[in-house]
Amino acid sequence: MGRSARDAVDHWRRAAAGRPRGDRRWAEAQVELGAALLDRYHAGQARQDLIEATVVLEAAIRTMADSFLADDLGTPHGVRALATYTDVLLARARIESEPQLLDIAEQYLRFAEDASADLGNSAVLMLKKCQVCRVRHDFDGSVDTLYRLTAIAKMAEQWISPEHLPALRGIHAEALLRAYQLTGVEDYVDEALELVSSVDATGPNQDQIVMLRARCLLARASGTTHTADVERAVAVLREHSRQSVDARFLTGQTLLTLVDRTGRAELLGQAWEEFAAALTTVGERHPQHRTALASLSTVGMKTHQLTGDISALETAIGLLRRALALSVRGEPNHALYSDQLGYSLRLLYDATGEPAYLQEALVLLRQALDALPARDPHRAETGLSIAQALRATYLRTGEKALLTEAAERARTAGRVESAAVPVRIQAFDKAAYTLTALGRWKEATDAFDEAITLLPRLASRGRTRHDQYADLGSTAGLAATAASCAIGAGQPERALELLERGRGLLLHQRLTADGEWAALQRADGRLAADFQRMRRDFEAPAPETSRPTTFGRDRETEWNVLLATIRELPGLGDFLRAPSARQLLDQVDGTVVVPIASELRCDALILRGHRVTVLPLPGLSLTDAMTQLRLLQEATTTAYDPAADARSRLRAQSALGGVLDWLWSALVGPVLDQIGAPEAGGELPRVWWCPVGPLAFFPLHAAQAGAGRSALDRVVSSYTPTVTALARKRTGTRQSRPDARSCVVAMRVTPGGPGALPSAEREAASAARALPDAWVGLDAGATREQVLDRLADSAYAHFACHAVADPDDPAQGRLLVHDHQDDPLTVADVSRLDLDAEFAFLSACATSQAPPTLVDEALHITGAFQLAGFRHVIGTLWEVDDAVSLALTTAFYAHGDPTGSAAYALHSAVRGLRDRYPLAPTLWAAHIHTGG
Question: Where are the TPR repeats (predicted)?
């Protein structure tokens, strides 16, 4: 316009005064005056400017309709008048909380649309109708309002001019974004991102387009916490934004989300700076002033959660009280301020124990929930907060009715389909725990079941593995607790099913029974080829985090469509579905033991004879298991610590002996007594151990408590990460391999790695003599490329080298071949192989170790060889001695044909070492056999 808002108002007021009332030029001046008054309102927030603009524009529109032809309302001048009038009514509707003003705006727009013969003008009027729908949604919260908006936007897209296209696509994208937030339908946010990405981010609406793109990325991240989307949102804002008030708010919010995702506390200071700058820019009467106060309070709350600083929490509460006092009930954010204040007060109660804080928190949270629209995703978090506050009140007062309400509130929160999946899982988990406290075991099992049903969405193939690890790790122990609850409800088969559905999610994505694959090939060769192609795509290296995550999400959608198509084929309705307990029991040949330690109870599920038997383990507790695990880890570390003296190492061996004694008394002994003693002089029976959670770190096969009380003397032990993995390996068709080849690797000296392994070459020679057509990669001859090339067509493998686990990224655990510093041979590399292989012996350190929160996912080197297609894998639970490894390997291969009886060969070799070094269990208890 070239003038300040005040000058513009004065100019157009004089222009209108210089024309006769009712004259066309007078009407046009009135329209410009109304527009100038609206601009002045935006600049100073003076409500009187909106009132005057309404009067001025109504007079102009009435003149156009009455003094000329009514068709004038459909001309560009009429369209501008109605567009400006609509903007004024939208602003008034917001600040006055009067949705009836929207009805008036729509009435005038319909009148003008009927009068317009120009499709371009009609498209502009439709754009205004979209804006009315957007504000109406602020009042009614209805997804139907958003659907109406998107329908109008799609129609207008056909005729809108290039000038107005960015605004149309922006409001269309925002509607889709809101629809996603209400429904959780991922296609909506993907379509929104596609729309907003099609708009030039350097145009006149740069800030709005950039921020909308960032909001879409942030919203998509909130569904299942895609870190890559959050990082892209930060990059988009910092690269393109001009740091307007809105941009500062969004940048701060995005930084807070990144704090939640990464724990990077240093980002809190950056977020505070963004919100503080926004606060100083807007006046107290502006709605964004309240938003800034609430946002600053979030920084204070998160600071308290990360550091324990109570003063930061008290500051947050003070800021929220100011924001709530300035807001009006019925205002869109009023409920969110109440929710945030209630949650903060509950945190303050947790920190101080002051009951008044908890009482006020409950009042505020209930008010917030009552005010939120029915499908608002925040209802899940608010409902969960109410449940937590009710439970805290119960613990203080003992009123059982509070527990009953807490359970129902949490369960209802979990069923808010538009909410983020991790929040829903947490809500169901809270509901289930609360129901167990009420003794309602069956209902609690149902709630756990609902939580576990959501877990596959955290393991979605469209997500980066870092996000998968973070979210699955946050649910560690859920499957074990769910199974314990089902046992308490008298449902042992359901307990097995919950364990199988809640563990090994990433593992089961890769495992396909050969029988299923063969049936698919017979039924439809084209679909079988598509299936193989998709599997190869997913098993390829993940895209860099800077790559658009729609790439992964599109592949996930394609995969789900393909599975649905396959399952429509006759006989393939259960293709790749989690098997039922009955199906698993029918496939189990022998005895499988599933030990479970949870906060609720400790048991072993014993699978044999097509039955599941529950064996309570009263001598086992989760607390004791964690204590013994710490002792085990300390002992195995000290025993191989070159800085430890002889006395410390002897104490470590004694401590490990104590762990094995406890293991026998608390778990293994009762299980083997239940199974029964072996026949005198007969072959020892096989037992497959499928330990859950922290029990997977223990050498169950080596448990002993004196003469005659040793697992090694009672059974031949094998391990499996899940019963499903064992069943699928067994249902595969094993073919004879007359042309089988072998890959043998030995690293005597590892460049830049740990100490030398002088026995590695002799160990490799022992393996090469026993295995068919063995290629031996020795030292510099064992590079990553060479090893992977040989593994690709090998049925057997033996590695005598060092190995390293990566607790932050299990897929980067690696076998240290010659070029490991530049080109490491990782878990991810091996697991991507697609082999029909028999046997792998991993004579390396701690190849079966995984991060504690991901132990049920079998994300370790041993698991990688299973995924690659090896039916039998021998790995280690901790560091192993070079000379002892040679002795064990020699005894193993001397047993006969290890490829057909790997478990028996390993058992014999381990027993021999046990008899030779009975007081040094670190030397003989580390090796385990995994597989069929």
Answer: 425-458
